[in-house]
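Extended Data, panel c. Modelled sequence:
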Amino acid sequence: MSKSVSRGWVNPDIKMTGKTVIITGANTGIGLESAIDFVKREARVILGCRNMEKAEEAKKRIVAETGGNEDKVILKQLDLASFASVRAFAKDVNENESRIDVLLNNAGVMMCPKGKTEDGFETQYGVNHLGHFLLTNLLLDLVKRSAPSRIVNVSSLAHRMFSTKIDWDDMNYDNNYSETGAYGRSKLMNILFTRELSRRLEGTNVTANSLHPGSVNTDLQRHVNGTWSLMGLFITPYMKLFGVTAKRGAQTNIFLTVAPEVENVTGKYFTNCAQANESDQAKNDEDAKRLWEVSLKATGLSESS
């Protein structure tokens, strides 16, 4: 076990004084618990949230649990299902922030009914992968200027479940849509994106790693209960019996953000605050490069963007 971790909990004495962290999806679940932890470590956190009313509630909780420093918590509107919203958020950050020490791509949707983002992409593909791909690339110059800095992408063990594979001819899952298949595919994309990103960041002193947070009992499973009854019948009681709390589930987020021993580790996959073995598909460098090119085209980016 890492020297920064004891019994699954990251050492609270590791400080982040003077550092700025951006967290997507930080108004609930492991994103919120990560934000609370970072502020306790004296970091300044920017919460990128779709629902600003819930974001205000989250800020009140963060301030209450960390000693009342409102200046450490900044709220910005971010809807990852809208490229326009992602671009507006990135423009705001680039114009008003001097540094980004950590970008924690935490937001996500799970096994939702078939739908499309504002830009016409299947929801889980659009939110879990494309939105974060665009955001990361738009903020990348600032992240590089802030080096040593870190990018942390929340994936899932689901990347190796549900017969997950990428259908390059049907990226939007228009044919034979499966809630579980689309989720697993988007989580596989998170790891492949991280792999190619880390390769492209060689020599910049910026690291990129991905993680599985564990079976966390949060409202991420809200679409499972009812919309897909067979999965709901299994997952709901399983999570109640075996799911960990959001605070516990946030520990690998926190570990990859603060632990000194992973400062120079990049392109890896973690769970339970330790490096883990991703699926063979997730290690495919050609697929990682291909996904990058497909994602550039889908988001309207160019290599020089």
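The longest strand covers residues 206-212. This feature is highlighted in the accompanying rendering.
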